[in-house]
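Record type: monomer structure entry
Structure origin: computed from sequence
Chain ID: A
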Amino acid sequence: MADAADHNAVNGPAAAAALGADPRLTAARAVLWLLAALLAVRQAASALRLPPGRRLTDPDTWIGENGVLHVSGGLHVSGGLYEAVDGPRFTGTPFSGLVLSPLTSSAQQALGVAWTFGTLLLVAAVGLVAARSLPGPVPRRTALLAAPVAIALTMVSLPVRGTFTLGQTSIIPVLLVLSGCLRVPGERTSGLLVGLGAALQPALLLFVPLLWSTGRRTAARSTAVTFAAGSALAWAALPRDSWTYWVHHLAGTGLGDRADSPANQSLHGALLRLGLSGPLETGLLGLLAAAVCLLGLRRAVRYAHDGQPLLAVALTGCVAVAVSPGGWQHQLLWVLLAAAGKVGTRAADRAVWPVTVVLVMTLPSDVLLPNLAVLAPVRDNVLLLAALAAACAVPFLPRTSPHWHHPVPTAYAPPAPARWSRIPLLPFWRRVLSRPNLLLELLLIRVGYSLYSHIRAAAPDSRALAEGHGRRIHSLEGRLGIDIEHAVNHAVVDQPLLRGFFDFYYTSFHFVVPLAVLALLYRRSPGDYRWARASLGLATVLALAGFWLYPLAPPRLMPGLGFIDTVHGPQDLADPQYGAMTAISNQYAAMPSLHFGWALWCGLVVFALARRPWQKALGLVHPAVTLCAIVATANHWVLDAVGGAAVVAAGFGLVYVLSGPRGSGPAPAPPGGDLLASVPPALRGRRSGASIGS
C-alpha cells in the first residue's frame, strides 16, 4: 500500500512549480494554511488556559505532591496500574503504561505544555500523511491544497479535541499505523510501526489480516511479532498489571468510564445502552463483531487492491474500534479518514459523504439530532453508526468506475442578469436545476437550526438593557398610534376559546408550516425549493444580528404595564427566568420577531408559487393569524413584526442579488427544439434528483 500511496504524489516539481505560479492557487493555499495555523493556536491556547483540574485529566490522576506527576512504582496506584481505592486510574495497555512511565517524574505544568505542542505536531503529521495518501491519480491542484484542509479538519475533530484536554494517546497509534501502511517502504519497518500501534491499542491487530491479504505478509508477521514482544516486555516489567488488564478487564473493558457510557462508541457499549447484559449480550456481541470484521475487512482489502490505500486503512480502523470492547470516542479518528472515499455518480452527491463525516466528527450528537426519546438510540451512537456505515455499508466508488473522474454533471440554469445593472450577480452563485440530496439537506437544516438556537441563546440578555429598549418601543408605538398590544391581550384573555386558539397557534405552527412548505417545494419544485430555502436562511441569519444588537423585552416581561402571559402563565417579574422555555431560549431575543418573519416567508412563497387565487389567499392567512397570535399572547410588540418583515424582505433581496430573479430557468428552446435541448443528455429527466449512488 505504501507504493500505491507514493505513486499518488504530485507529479514532479516542475508541475508543482507551475501550479504554484497560479496566483489564485497560491492565495488559496495561503488562506488554508493560515486557517490551519489559527486553529492550531486556538486549540493550544484553549488547552493551556484550562485549570489543572480540567486539563490532562488522565495524567492528572498520577499527580503527587507539589504538582509533580510521580507515583511509586511508575504508574502503579495503590499497588497496581488498574487498581485504586476510588476506581481504575489508567485506561491504556500495560505497554503504554511502560512507555509513559518516564512522564511520571515530570512537573505538571511542563508536561501540559509539552503535551499540547506535541499533540499539535502529531496532528500535523497525521494530516500530511493522509493528504499524501489520497487515491490517485490525484489532481495536482488537489494534492497541493489537501494538506492544510486535512490538518484543519483533524484539528477540530472530536477525538483530537479530547486529546488536548484529556491527555489521551490515541492519536499516536493512528499515526503509527498510517505511517506503517502508507509511507514507510520497508516491510519489516512497516510492520514494526503497526505492531507498536497495536501494542498501544490491541484492536489494531486487525491490520494483520489486511496486510496479509494485500500481499504484505512480511509486514503482517512483523506486526504480530512486535505486538507480542511489546506485550511480553510489559508483562515482565508489570506482571500484576498485565494480568489485571488482559484477564480481569478483558483488554480494557471497564476501564475509565463505565462500559455503557456514551463515550464507549463500540458495539459492546451500544448493546449495554440498549439494556442487554449477560450471556445474551456476549453472544450477540460475538455474532455482530464477527459479521462486521468479515464484511469490513473484505471491503478494506478490495479497496486496497483498487489503489485506495488510505480508504482501506480507514475502514480497517473503523472495524477495529467498533468491535473493540472499549471503543472510546478519542479513538475514532478513523471515521474522519474515511472521508477520502468517493460516493455517488452525480457531481451533486459527491459532497454528501464528506460533509456528513465532517459534521459527525466535529459536532456533538445533540446538535445533529433533536432531543427526542425516540431518537436516543441513534443520538447516543452517532459515531459508532458512522464507523459501521463506513466499514460495511457506504458504496465507495472503485477507481475503475467511469464516474470516478467524470461524475454526472449538475444542471445549471443560464445566468440571469440582475434587473438593477449596478448590482452584479456573484459569479460563483449559479442556479441549480436539480433537487438537492435529501440526506445532506436534512443534516444542514438540522445543524443550521441548532447553531441558530445556540447563537440566539448566547445573545446579550441584560434585563436592564432589554427593558429599556422595551420602554422605547412602547413609547414609539404610542407616538405612531399602533400601541394595540395591551387592548388585544386583555380582550383575548376574557375569551377562553380565543385565548386557547391563539396559544395553540403560537406554540404549534411556528415550525410546522415552514417545514411543510419546504417539504412540498422539495417534492414538486426543486428550483423554487433552493430559492425559498436560501431566502429563509439569510433572513434567519440577519435576525440573529438583531438579537445581538438590540436585546428587547417582550410585553409579557415588561413590569408595570399589566400584560398577561397567556402561553406561559403567571410569573414573577422580579425574576423572569421561569418555565421550561427559559432553559432553551433567550427571552430577550424578540426583535425581530421570527414567529412573524417565518410566517410571512411562508405566505409570500405560497402567494408567489400557488396557481389558484384561493391558494394564494390561504397563504396570506397564516402571517395574518400569526401577527394576531404574537400580539394577543403578549410575546411581541407590533414593531417586532415590522422587524421580522424587514429581515424577510432582506433575505429575498439578497437571493435576488446573488442568483437573479426567481423565474430564471433554462434558456429558451432553439428553433425546432424543446426546452431540454440545451441540457446535456445525461441530465435529462434528472431535475427531480436522486439519492446517493443513483
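Annotation 1: The mean pLDDT is 79.
Annotation 2: Residues 2-392 form one domain.
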